[in-house]
Amino acid sequence: METIIIPINQNNIDNEAIVLASQFIHAHQCVAMPTETVYGLAANAWSDEAIQRIFEAKGRPSDNPLIVHVCDQEMLLKCIDQPLNDRILKLMEAFWPGPLTLVFKKSSLISDLVSASLPTVGIRMPDHPIALALIKATQVPLAAPSANVSGRPSPTKGSHVLDDLQGKIAAIIMADQSQVGVESTVLDVSSQTFAILRKGGLSIERLREVDSEIIYDDALIDVNVTPKSPGQKYKHYAPSKPMTFIEGNLLKQLEYLKTISLEHTLLISVDEIINELSGPYMVTLGTKDDFEFALNGLFDILRQSDNMPVTSILVTSYSEKGLGATLNDRLKKASTEKIIL
Ligand code: TXA
Ligand code: MG
User: For residue 64, what is the domain's CATH number?
Assistant: First the structure.
């Protein structure tokens, strides 16, 4: 299949380009679209034929449900079968549009293909002018997983989507790099206990400022508990080389790294460590507490590592506060080994 490239400037959105993209959606095809978190592979959530195409293009396991993207409350209400109580409304007011997916009891309109036969559906309002314009133009909710081949790092640039999905999907909207650079936080609000199912672009600390009772789901604390979010159990974000996650405080990490050879290894770390070492392949993700900056560049570096003449990758852990918890989560999932110092 020929993949059509649709360039759109997000500061001056060309309506004809949006109409072209929406024609593909109405023809039950998949269109990769930018969002503020990562690029998504969008298709009409009401069309099983279109949803099937998402799973095929990504090589995605069919038991992993899709997130549905909406542009307003009216569209949200068509997708869910539960009242919006005060707690939920407060969260939506504070964080939508934005990197927060809410898991609701699903309406009968949401097909089992989208929800992977779960009784719930994850919904998000993206904070991106092109994604919102596309949903408004199509007037249908858009199911959209990250637009990568399953298992690969999520795409934060249009070129990443091209690398993974060219020839497999109808169209790619090419726009700027995703601002957040990591997927949304998934929060289950389908029962009284509001629990985070996947760490993401919004920290638990910020969520608790609005709802102090939000907790992490047990599976995020204890590896022996089966995750409620099926995607959590799969291998993710993996570069093609073996990657080791080095867990410990900065001083211990530095001490350890000074004892080993970095000749054939890519070291991905922070300024405070990289500045103290020498090696041919070292990439910094910024200063140790600049979590936003690090998240913004992480997936791009993991993808670049595939083309570097190195045999292995080392990454260092972050502090667990704020979005440091999300960074550690993605680094651990992308790693094949772990060293605890
Ligand atoms: O930021 C994002 O969330 C991006 C952009 C494109 O919106 N999308 C994304 O989708 O990351 P995906 O498919 O790569 O990840 C969706 C995650 C999976 O871990 C899936 O298991 C979980 O959300 N999920 C979706 N629906 C769920 C549900 N009903 N219950 C529990 N987990 C759900
Ligand atoms: Mg994904």
Answer: 3.90.870.10
Looking at 159-230, which runs of residues are DSSP E strands? 171-174, 185-188, 195-198, 215-216
Q: 249 phi and psi, to 5 degrees?
A: -75, 165
Alpha-carbon Rg for the chain in angstroms: 20
> How many domains is the chain built from?
2
The number of the ligand 1 atom at minimal distance from the alpha carbon of 60 is: 13
Quick: pLDDT tens for 329-339: 999 999 999 99
Residue closest via CA to ligand 1's atom 20 equals 231
Look at residue 236 and tell me if it is in a domain: no
Domain boundaries, position 124:
4-229
Which pTM does this prediction carry?
Answer: 0.97
End-to-end, the C-alpha distance of the chain in Å comes to 49
The C-alpha atoms of residue 253 and residue 256 are separated, in whole angstroms, by 5
Q: How many other CB atoms sit within 10 Å of the CB of residue 203? A: 19
Nearest to 182 by CA among 154, 207, 205: 154
Residue 179 shares a structural domain with residue 256: no
Ligand of minimum distance to the alpha carbon of 80:
1
Residue 110 Cβ contacting ligand 1 at under 6 Å: no
